[in-house]
Amino acid sequence: MSAFEPVYAIVRTIPPGRVMTYGQIAKGLERPLSPKAVGWAMSQCPDDVPWHRVVDAKGTCSRDRADPSGRQTQRRRLEREGVAFDAKGRLDLEALRFHPPRG
What we know:
Blueprint: H1 5-12, E1 20-21, H2 22-28, H3 35-43, E2 54-55, H4 72-80, H5 93-96
Parallel strand pairs: 1-2
Helix pairs in contact: 2-3
């Protein structure tokens, strides 16, 4: 089992069209990590983890698995799930943030 499995377990609960931030996931872990550590986990997550539903604290796409120099894959996946971005490439975190039920 990966040391990052608790991160992946949270991310797997994010429904389509909703998002969580790296910091939000970091704080929600039983053994907290830094947001950067959550980002590291996302960079090497298994294929069944919906990595594209994790965004930065500004509500922007912060990585792209297929092309590290761009953010288009993540944005396209979110848009296919009904997520809209403003002219600055941000999404509405207030409306789209997912809050998983506490155990």
